[in-house]
Amino acid sequence: MTLPTSTNLGQIQCAVDILRDVDLPFVLLEKPEIVIPLRAQFQFLERAARETGDACFGARLGQLVRMKELSKFGAWVCSAETLLQAIERGHAGLNVMLQTSTGLSLQRRGSLVRWSIDFLEPETDGRLHNELLGISYMIDTVRTYVGKRWCPEVVMTTLSAGAPRAGLEQVFGTNISVGHAVTSFEFDQALLNCGRAGSSCARLEVNAPVEPAVPEQDDALAMIAAVTDLALYEGYPRVDWVAAKLDISSRSLQRLLEQQGTSFRRLKEDALLRRAKSLLGDRGASITEIAFDLGYRDLAHFTRAFRRWTGRSPTEWREFARGSPASLL
């Protein structure tokens, strides 16, 4: 999820309050590239829409953030040579690089193509806002190649028949159609060959590493590990917090890990070690600050744990890493 940067203190406080209500770490305001479960994103958007009283919140948010700013995934998509290649990158990389449980499809319909977005997550609250946010990114992708003033003739939405459309038509600047199975829009297939003339999107190699890695939908172990990484931003990872984000009980999560031949303690310590190494690579942070950031009560507890993991104290590892960059990986 990407949150628009704001210097308005009122908006920042509102975002902090919403993150607190849906039990997500405040660091998302500074690090929007952090992976969160799709259900949590739905909850954030629904809560934000209620807080602001804006029935078009998802669509309006989508007008504030550009596709090329959607983590490294967006920059990678926008660096393709043509619109068709950009769309192909989006389809190939979305679930791996950014957001699981999301499907993109491109259908040819005579001289037109229809580009659609759909979510497999059964959660309903916040779904429409997420659909409108996603379609906004897709429209912005087309504009990267066609021109910033381009707009589809109509945006097809999953709004029920008879739902008011005037607000959304004002936000999107085009016609809104309701009653569709998925959210989508159409454009002339000739636009697929448009290049990036004048684009300022950053170039990334196709095989460049992209962080954070998002697990495949059917990879339960990787999903639990990803949410455990997220839990680090709340302090020392807690099994009940991770289980709640995955909508299962703590005991069910632990049984699932046992079936996979591992445990929450092992996943937690793997996550702590990765995060500790990353923080130790920042020369501006003291060892004590890092210990507290990771949720340890004091430096001694962190030092003992780190020595158990690596055979070195945090200070020794930091000094060793200065002469051996590969050890930072």
Q: Considering DSSP H and I runs of 4 or more, what fraction of the residues is helical?
A: 40-55%
Tell me about the largest β-sheet: 5 strands, mixed
Strand composition percent:
5-15%
User: What would you report as the Rg, rounded to the nearest angstrom?
Assistant: 22 Å
Q: How are the strands of the largest sheet arranged? A: 1-2-5-3-4
The strand count comes to 5
The unreliable regions are 1-12, 198-214, 325-329
Structural classification: alpha+beta
Task: Give the domain tally.
Answer: 2
Q: Looking at the structure, what is the overall shape?
A: elongated
> Which series of helices and strands comes N to C?
HHHHHEEHEHEEHHHHHHH
Count of DSSP H/I helices:
14
Give the overall pLDDT as a whole number: 78
* N- to C-terminal distance: 25 Å
Provide a short characterization of the protein structure:
This protein has 329 residues and is of the alpha+beta class. The chain has helices spanning 9-21, 38-52, 57-62, 71-78, 83-98, 127-146, 166-172, 220-231, 239-245, 250-259, 264-280, 287-293, 299-310, 314-322; strands at residues 102-109, 112-119, 154-156, 175-177, 183-188. A five-stranded mixed sheet has the order 1-2-5-3-4.
